[in-house]
Fold this protein.
Amino acid sequence: MSAPPLHVSDLTKRFGDRAVLEDLRLEVAPAEVVRISGPNGAGKSTLLTCIAGTLIPDQGRIAIAGHDLHGAPLLARAALRYLPQASPSPRGVSGRELLDFYGEVYGATAAEVDEVAAGSGLGGSLEALVTSYSGGMKRRLLFNALRFGRPALVILDEPVAGVDRSGRRAFRTQLDRWRSDGAAVLLTTHEPTDRTFEALSMRVVELDAP
Amino acid sequence: MPRVDAWPHGLLIALPLAVSWAVLRHERALVSLNDAQTLDLVFGVLMLAVGVHARNYPFQHATSVLQSAALPLPRALLWRRAVRHQRRVLSVHYALGLLVVGTWGALQHSEILLAALDWTCMCCAAAVVEPWVSGAAARWGRRFPERHPIAEVQRSIGGGWTRPEAVVHLYAGAGALALTAAVAMPLQLIMLTSMTRPDPSASWEPFTVAVAPLALLPVMHWWGQRWYQGAAFESTPWLHEATRTLAGPPTPDRAPAWIRWIPDPARRMQLRQFCRTVSLPSLRLLGPTAWAAAVVAAETIGDPIVLAAGALLGSVWLAPALRVPPTPAAERLPWSTFPLATTLGRPTRRALPWTWALSPVILPLATVVTYALVT
């Protein structure tokens, strides 16, 4: 039996004396979509960033596709795609160059990068600097940058915030594609009733108020 | 009040410059006042030049100034905060310069005093002139009616490179430096003449004439503040609009071809960012490259002057790297989520950007250590 896309056990994260996450356990099955829910400050983004490896928990174990995030960091990260809440906008880099970078990191061929670029809906703007993009364009670019390769787990922190209707449709199409490929999706959204998530079977994990 | 963003590279580049200045003064064993004055003039102007942006960015360039444009904050508050910052950073540059002219070089006490006073004049002039130039940049960095003379000047000096409204900022640093030198010069001449004059009873009339421009300094301060208050709300957004595209067109120029030789994608990405945020990267790289070639050819690594020159050239090349890490954390690429050996590790210990960024400090320190070992 293959390892689950995500296995979290006994995860604890404290900021000072305040425990934001305490002994959290979570397992996500292939092709499953899990929405992390809870009020502001409940630790949704903290959980996602711990799983993505950008925040180190105080205790607990995180395994992505069976690879321990700290014991086998490269293998775990190769199986992971992460869209942070704030869209990165590195200075001095064009949209196309950022796609090339993600493509190289996730082992895509030049043809695959071209295909993703063509399907990104950003057209000629891809040649412009990312810092000149609107918030929605950045979101769309970053989301497309996650399309390379076959991830086991996709983490999306507020994926459709600031994205227009056509961008949301493209997002949903890709979400369905990931699921059909067996990837699990872990997401947070303040718009769970949005049409993007219509008819999408989602397990909801509720985090308690702080 | 919004926090002033960290923008340390202008401070750090001053350090290797001071090291080079000190090494040259020490090695030349300056015997004449003229030698010392020539060296101090060159390095003094350089010291002010490398820190001009670090001292003055809170007037308009800081992100917090743009963010505060949506708040009903009087611009006078921002002006006062920026002036405080400018004087604080200037005092660091002043102290570095004072340390060099006061410590190194075989000069007499009176000559050391004169060199220190010369440097003091430059820094005092900069303390007043730079805020005035920032006020003027706010005043002229706005949109004017189509046929307004300033609009025509904006178009003609911009050459279509960046937004005409923001073009004044391309010239503001050099303008501030030139004006600082022009204001400081009379006072420097007075001091030189008074300390070297054979006849103390000679007429003071020429000195009075030379001091006259200094009376303008308080007026300039008031004037700059007035211009800033009246125009900063309007000019800051133009400046930041131009900054989003690195003061150029939205589609960037090609990155230098040699970047393709770097095998690691993370390093390649950061080098590309670095080169795009620096003016004329390949041309600037010629300096350290030529230095390295000359050292290899002549086998002169032990010469302290060569070391000082190397530290200076390398630091000038590397200093803009500090512009990459200060990007707000939320806007940075999530490096630690990529399956790349070079970017892994605890997020707080990610060394890659900071190794680049701190090179301007590491390099001169290494030079000092090498210098100490060699001599």
Summary: The longest helix of chain A spans residues 165-180. The mean pLDDT of chain A is 89.
